[in-house]
Amino acid sequence: MKGNNISTQNSPDALLERNILFEDNHIIVINKLPSQIVQGDKTGDRPLADLVKDYIKEKYDKPGEVFLGVVHRLDRPVSGAVLFARTSKSLTRLNSLIKNREIKKTYWAVVKNKPPKQADTVVDYLRRYEEKNKSFVVAENTKDSQKAVLSYTLIASSDNYYLLQIDLQTGRHHQIRAQLSAIGCPIKGDLKYGFPRSNSDGSIHLHARELSFIHPVTLVPILIIAGTPKDPVWDFFDNSIG
């Protein structure tokens, strides 16, 4: 199921509906805007989860509280596919898939510097520092560190940037951002991890491109492809790949 590029205009309700990539009675997948938070935080901004609940409540005329389970999260400046569970049964099964690494996540990242290799698997140990909301690559035996593994492939380039496809094998805090920075390839717009300039809208050029998993109830294989946000850099790479 391929989604259109992220729509960024008109009312919040219409915007959310246009950015739905998949929906049935058990799950719903949204193409998240880079400005949105998945769950509430200290900013007090309205999270995507609440917008989805309102959408379900209105569409299906549901009185009272609507159940919605957050299966995984994306950082605020990151765009792309976010999976929610609409029932407790599907949430339990999806959490099991996550735990057993049976939900495959593929990302696109735009970086300024060419990576060391055309394709590689990067293995690091990351430690999260809560006070800085940042993860660092550290030595293997560092206290509280966790193993982090990703594979990347260089799939396109422009005069100024390189597009990497990232396949995550672990799910650590800021994993892609920290590991790419550590190999000299900070993501476009990501000041926190070493890119020299921010993007004007506060986004970074990291996009959750694909989700692949077995449906928790129907057991049918699901492939979700999320269109990228509309901006000149993403548009160039979309057009170059076809």
Task: Provide structural commentary.
The chain contains 5 helices and 11 strands. It starts with 11 loop residues before the first helix and ends with a helix. The mean pLDDT is 92. The chain has a single domain, classed as Pseudouridine synthase, CATH 3.30.2350.10. It is globular, with a radius of gyration of 18 Å.
Secondary-structure map:
Blueprint (H helix, E strand, L loop, with lengths): L11 H7 L1 E4 L3 E6 L15 H12 L9 E2 L8 E7 L2 H12 L4 E8 L7 E11 L4 E5 L7 E12 L4 E7 L6 H8 L23 E9 L6 E5 L6 H10 L1
Parallel strand pairs: 4-10
Antiparallel strand pairs: 1-2, 2-4, 3-4, 5-9, 5-10, 6-7, 6-8, 8-9, 10-11
Helix content: 10-25%
First-residue to last-residue Cα separation: 16 Å
CATH topology: Pseudouridine synthase
Cα shape: globular
* Number of helices, where a helix is a run of at least 4 consecutive DSSP H or I residues: 5
Tell me the series of helices and strands, N- to C-terminal. HEEHEEHEEEEEHEEH
- Described by its quaternary structure, the protein is single chain
Q: Report the CATH architecture.
A: 2-Layer Sandwich
